[in-house]
Backbone:
């Protein structure tokens, strides 16, 4: 289930997000309002999509979801473009940049 342009989670969906399921004979069901709906734990995924990088969720909703921010920054795009240009124009500089980057990571780990 994909819910698009969502800045909040309707409390109606909390039982589904919490996976409050019960068994009715051999059926697994979740209660949504007045309706009992069949539920398949293995294949069900619920995804909320928002253009807002920091959705305004109350504490109950925040406890039920994992927020992943896929925002692309100008700095990240510049870095990607620079590495692509270096790779095409001067592969020696690209190798040097990779080596220096690894050395920097090692130095930070030692600190």
Residues:
């Amino acid at each position: 289930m994909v819910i698009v342009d969502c800045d909040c989670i309707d409390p109606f969906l909390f039982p589904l997000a919490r996976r409050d399921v019960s068994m009715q004979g051999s059926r697994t069901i979740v209660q949504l309002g007045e309706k009992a709906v069949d539920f398949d734990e293995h294949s069900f995924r619920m995804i909320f999509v928002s253009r807002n990088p920091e959705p305004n969720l109350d504490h109950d909703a925040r406890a039920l979801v994992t927020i992943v921010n896929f925002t692309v920054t100008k700095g990240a795009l510049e870095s990607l473009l620079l590495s692509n240009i270096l790779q095409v124009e001067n592969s020696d500089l690209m190798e040097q940049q990779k080596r220096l980057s690894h050395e920097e990571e090692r130095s930070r780990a030692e600190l």
Notes: Helices lie at 14-18, 59-62, 74-89, 91-110.
